[in-house]
Amino acid sequence: MGVVEGRLGGFLIVLTIMGLAFPVFFNALVQGYNRPPPRKNVYVPSDDPGSDSPQQVHISTVGAEKMRVSWITDSPSPATVEYGTSPGAYEKSATGSTSSYKYLMYESGEIHDVVMGPLKPNTVYYYRCGSNSGPEFSFKTPPASFPITFAIVGDLGQTEWTKSTLDHISKVNYDMFMLPGDLSYADVDQPLWDSFGRLVQPLASQRPWMVTQGNHEIEKIPVLHTHAFTAYNARWHMPYEESGSDSNLYYSFDVAGVHVIMLGSYTDFDPSSAQYQWLQTDLGKVDRGRTPWIVVLIHAPWYNTNKAHQGESESIDMKDAMEDLLYQARVDVVFAGHVHAYERFTRVYKDEANNCGPVHITIGDGGNHEGLASKYKNPQPKISVFREASFGHGRLVVANATHAQWTWHRNEDDEAVASDSIWLTSLSSDPACKN
Q1: Alpha helix locations (H) across 205-268?
Q2: What DSSP element (H or E) covers 115?
Q3: Catalytic site residue 309?
Q4: DSSP class of residue 306?
Q5: Cα end-to-end span (Å), the chain
Q6: CA distance 190 to 108
Q7: Helix 313-328, helix 274-285: angle, nearest 10
Q8: Alpha helix (H) ranges present in 64-181?
Q9: What tens digit of pLDDT does each residue of 284-327 get?
Q10: What is the spatial distance between Cα 265 and Cα 263, in angstroms, rounded to a whole number?
Q11: Rounded CA gap, 202 and 354, in Å?
Q12: Residues of the chain above pLDDT 70, percent
């Protein structure tokens, strides 16, 4: 792996010469508070450029019995996946679609999207993408019932810290990876999306990666590229259609007794918006007898005592618009990113401790190149239980219908050490919170 040096900087200079106000736009995304010096980026090149060899392979769940496989090739290749439960023995095959996108002078490779199934739960499948000469991958489907373990990381990026975070997660026996926004930090430099896909492939090809978008996925440039989320939507197709959503930016799914909702901080969320109406309908359909836990992921946190990212509409206005919906539905936990530090709140509603409100957890400390947000408001409010500016990852082990354990691990710590840990009781099992 080599170091990325000056790729984005040179691109910004070109735009500046053209007389555009792009740097102003970009700085608005990055925010202007002081950060510690960033760690160096890593760039993962293609092993076989120009070929039809599959790269950037990642999987995502599609309903209870299906899995989506996405990958990219530099040259045309069939959108076909062969798979089976034994190495080298592919009893079944599935065919999907191929697409591509353009972004300024960049043109993506062939993006392949194939849905496999029906699949058995908690089972290892071996698969091969595209041509018969391609390498063999394997993945394990999530369990159909408790227990289930989620690995959760926000603001991942592709730095030396990212590599450390991914290495820690690779040593954990987890069932699903969830990411509340800010994936590649490509920030309009499209080859960095390809590098990110190659960097995460070892993990993303083995367990489903379920993601939502952050501000670094917007990639909208005045005049030159007026459509937002072009690369994100093309590369990371989530199961929004299956949940009745009209946008890849917000969706939901069920897995092993947990109803997971991915919300979009950077699309309309007011009460007249499509996202609000969808969320209201989605929450109304939840059967707590079948999915006793509800977990929500957003990018911009609604609760935050860090000095970073204060006063932003995506936090304040979205909270004002949607907090009542989550509270009335007795959502158990809300995970957010955006702030490059870790913070856990008590159960909270309307800025006060409330035993029937969600636990809000900020985990935007995956490994981004901007550094950590190390300055907090003091004194620490009572609703903020634990906060620390360190890189790390979290694990949510949902043991059964009533209890789950959340732990957060610093990258510096031995994996046996939980830097922050708490046992949660589902609100659906609390008589005092019954609606």
Answers
A1: 230-235
A2: strand 110-116
A3: yes
A4: B
A5: 54
A6: 8
A7: 30
A8: 160-170
A9: 999 999 999 999 999 999 999 999 999 999 999 999 999 999 99
A10: 6
A11: 41
A12: 91
